[in-house]
Each structure stands twice: as C-alpha cells, then as structure tokens.
Amino acid sequence: MIKAAGVDEVTDATFDAEVSKAALPVLVEFTADWCGPCRQIAPVLSALAAEEADRLKIVQLDVDTNPETAAKYGVLSMPTLMVFRSGEPVKAMVGARPKRRLLQELEDVI
C-alpha cells in the first residue's frame, strides 16, 4: 500500500473502532498498491492530515487485503475517498485531486 505520511492504516478488523466511533469526521482513502492515482494523492492526504487534524481524521484502507469493508461500501475504483460522520458515509469522491479542490469538496462535511 502507498502509505501517506501521518495517515493511519485501518483494516476490516479495526474499521469500526477507528472510523465508526471517531469523534471527528473521518476521511477514508480506499487504496491499493497497483493504483497510480493513489500515489498522486498520498502527499495531498499527508498535508491535510497535518493541517486539518483538529477537524478531520484521515485513514487509509488497502482494498486488496481488506475486501470486506470495500465491498460493504460498494467501492469499485481507486482511490475512493469517503467521509464518515458518526459511522455513516456522508460523501464519496473517486479519483485523485489537488489539495485545493479536495478542501473545497470537503467544506460541507468538516
């Protein structure tokens, strides 16, 4: 998995505890080793994790090693970015994007 610095990894086993029970909204990146755009967005997620830590938790889930969670939320394309609030998905976006655009798209959920 392409690890974004400062972004925790979650698994099928830890997803509920890390995402559903989080106090802040959680941005989950559904990612995979073979995903080119996932490499492009990793530095964007690292920057957001540092800058928005008080408003947003960011985690990554490798879909190849954690297929249950990906299937549960109907994730078919990588990267899929999904925002969860109180354990429920409130927004989904597919594909890499620049930091400014991602922040604009997140404004209504964080």
Mean pLDDT over all positions = 96
Silhouette: globular
Spatial strand order of the main sheet: 1-3-2-4-5
Helix vs. strand class: alpha/beta
Largest sheet: 5 strands, mixed
- Total beta strand runs: 5
Radius of gyration: 12 Å
**N-C termini distance:** 26 Å
Quickly describe the structure.
This protein has helices spanning 15-20, 36-51, 67-72, 99-106, and strands at residues 8-10, 26-31, 57-62, 80-85, 88-94. By secondary structure, it is an alpha/beta fold. The mean pLDDT is 96.
Describe the structure.
The protein has 110 residues and is α/β, with parallel strands linked by helices. The protein is 33% helix and 25% strand. The protein is built from four helices and five strands; from the N terminus they run E-H-E-H-E-H-E-E-H. The chain has helices at residues 15-20, 36-51, 67-72, 99-106; strands spanning 8-10, 26-31, 57-62, 80-85, 88-94. A five-stranded mixed sheet has the order 1-3-2-4-5.
